[in-house]
């Protein structure tokens, strides 16, 4: 199990420099580090080396890899074919080749997350530094286990309870037909079988994301007011996918404003803006990521005894946070991120009796 | 029908400034302009106004809108429910509410593209300026009609030819069963019915994208070598989704290098880096977008007579371009974008007899 660390903020190249310096810092401490980046040429230029979709050693303890969707899609296609052959008696995918597959929106994120998951599970790395887009697309990527598991729990139950689901599970005519197409006995109960595999995968992802020792982000900003505003926006938005933000990396400018108030209670670490290749001053100024991350508020705390849920939502004011309860779960909307709160059995299905927003916390009572 | 204009490049805030100035320029020429941006707070700060998911007038002839996925998802959900009710006899979606839906990776792009399509079709705007992520995610978004239509044509035929497809279309037992679940007569022929609607939508999207008078992008860069490299990378990548890049906007720096050679045959337009609010010097330095776009090479030219396809692929060298023919179509891979070339009947299914890469062109002979 690795520490997965990423950086959020508006300034693209500065953010990649911080990611490289962070990777070098952890490697110098004896950790086995993987630096994983996008397909665009930023990392290769900054590192002065060509990179590919296979990790390569660029320094002692330090490997680097790019995550191009087209290559990852090709590699994952064979796995998907095996899954299809397992569940479907007459597979269709076998006649389509990985080399002709085109990436659709969202695939980049799903494939990159899957690659990170596999590198994490390989046991080869103590830390994975992900140099992604650093914006809300990175949050969608890391939030995928959280958001997808909502779709699974919501639509599976609806399907099982629907006329369609009932007809399939009860009809003596349809069962043998389904068996002739699928390799599974698809009753409502056994409908759980394929989804359980998915659920296990999603639960592991959610557990990792909720654990600041496993996954954390740091904000990167200069004192440009727009960059600061975007960093604050991403800080709040990150909480909505249960991503812990451990601190702020402030790139020094001609004038370096004090940003402590904007990001309290996070530590603001001022670092120099270094030229490519001259990494040491930046490395020396970086904080202890794990230590700072351990001190910040958790995105969500559920207090069953007092029937309260406390959500840490910094960077937003009261008007920007919306609470609804239209479906079976409580929905919180902030920063273009919607979150359905999966409650423990003691609180499930209870109506919300009160809610207040104060000191960056949304406190919901049941 | 509007001109849809977007900007690609690494420098986030500078790119948004150019988008704003472009919108103001076109509005000052009497065009009805919509400026559409991301949910993050960059545009509201630069424009010194709050924005929402509904267009609002911010100057004469100029409206601005944000495209937050959560709001767009909610609005589109009702449409999806209607579609489901049309094709499925026992709808499941009706019990799920738009307000609880969570955005998954890719939805942001699909929803933003759909919103742009609707604003375009509304007839209310002569130009739509899309201030998106400006990176490969924007290319996936604009390339969606191209990439999705490949999936439709590839998998539809495989399904129709498969045992599963044949059993469904030929079995006297399964037809009535399907009719009891679906409102369509799902034979192999009629399988075309729902996909034809999709195809029509995709064909219109592809036609718009392939027409530089309808959709165009401009590159935005400083003379920072990494920004230049990323701009060149995006220039080549854009061709792979048939997006015409009309020219370069170079933000002046302390030293302004001559980038003409890097981007030939595009025009390089040097503009000043303006402070927020002081838009006029930037507006005055912007080019005539439509005129410059009309002069650049087309992403693809198909010469049936000489059995040749010419792809304009600038920004890549020979080693970065890959040509394969594993499936029924010819696949070209460059810049993490894969493109399957949909050929006219005279060339369909022919084997590639030769290929060469020279002067930024990949020339394929059949």
Automatic annotation (TrEMBL), chains A, B:
ArsA HSP20-like domain: which residues?
Answer: 308-366
UniProt lineage: Bacteria, Bacillati, Cyanobacteriota, Cyanophyceae, Nostocales
Output the Pfam families linked to this UniProt entry. ArsA_ATPase, ArsA_HSP20
What's this protein's name? ABC transporter ATPase
Domain ArsA/GET3 Anion-transporting ATPase-like, by residue range, is: 4-224
What the entry lists under InterPro entries is as follows: ArsA/GET3_ATPase-like, ArsA_ATPase-like, ArsA_HSP20-like, HSP20-like_chaperone, P-loop_NTPase
Family the UniProt entry places it in = Belongs to the arsA ATPase family.
């Amino acid at each position: 199990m690795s520490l997965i660390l990423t950086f959020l903020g508006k300034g693209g190249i500065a953010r990649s420099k911080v990611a490289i310096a962070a990777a070098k810092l952890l490697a110098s401490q004896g950790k086995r580090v993987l630096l994983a980046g996008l397909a665009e040429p930023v990392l290769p230029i900054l590192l002065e080396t060509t990179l590919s979709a296979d990790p390569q050693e660029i320094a002692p303890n330090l490997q680097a890899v790019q995550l191009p969707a087209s290559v990852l899609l090709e590699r994952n296609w064979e796995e998907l074919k095996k899954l299809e052959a397992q569940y479907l008696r007459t597979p269709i995918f076998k006649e389509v080749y990985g080399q002709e597959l085109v990436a659709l929106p969202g695939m980049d994120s799903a494939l990159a997350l899957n690659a990170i998951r596999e590198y994490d599970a390989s046991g080869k790395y103590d830390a994975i530094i992900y140099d992604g887009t650093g914006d809300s697309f990175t949050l969608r990527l890391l939030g995928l286990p959280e958001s997808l598991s909502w779709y699974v729990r919501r639509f599976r139950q609806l399907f099982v309870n629907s006329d369609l689901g009932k007809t399939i599970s009860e009809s003596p005519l349809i069962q043998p037909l389904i068996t002739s197409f699928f390799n599974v006995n698809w009753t409502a109960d056994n409908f759980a079988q394929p989804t359980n595999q998915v659920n296990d995968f999603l639960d592991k992802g959610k557990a990792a994301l909720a654990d600041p020792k496993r996954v954390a982000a740091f904000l990167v900003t200069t004192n440009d007011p727009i960059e600061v505003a975007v960093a604050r926006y991403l800080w709040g938005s990150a909480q909505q996918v249960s991503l812990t933000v451990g601190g702020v990396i402030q790139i020094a400018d001609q004038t370096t404003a004090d940003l402590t108030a904007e990001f309290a209670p996070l530590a603001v670490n001022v670092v120099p803006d270094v030229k490519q290749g001259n990494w040491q001053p930046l490395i020396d100024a970086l904080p202890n990521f794990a230590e700072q991350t351990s001190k910040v508020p958790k995105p969500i705390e559920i207090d069953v005894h007092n029937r309260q849920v406390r959500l840490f939502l910094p960077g937003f004011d009261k008007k920007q946070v919306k609470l609804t309860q239209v479906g079976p779960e409580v929905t919180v909307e902030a920063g273009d991120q919607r979150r359905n709160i999966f409650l423990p059995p003691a609180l499930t299905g209870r109506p919300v009796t009160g809610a207040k927003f104060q000191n960056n916390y949304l406190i919901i009572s049941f």
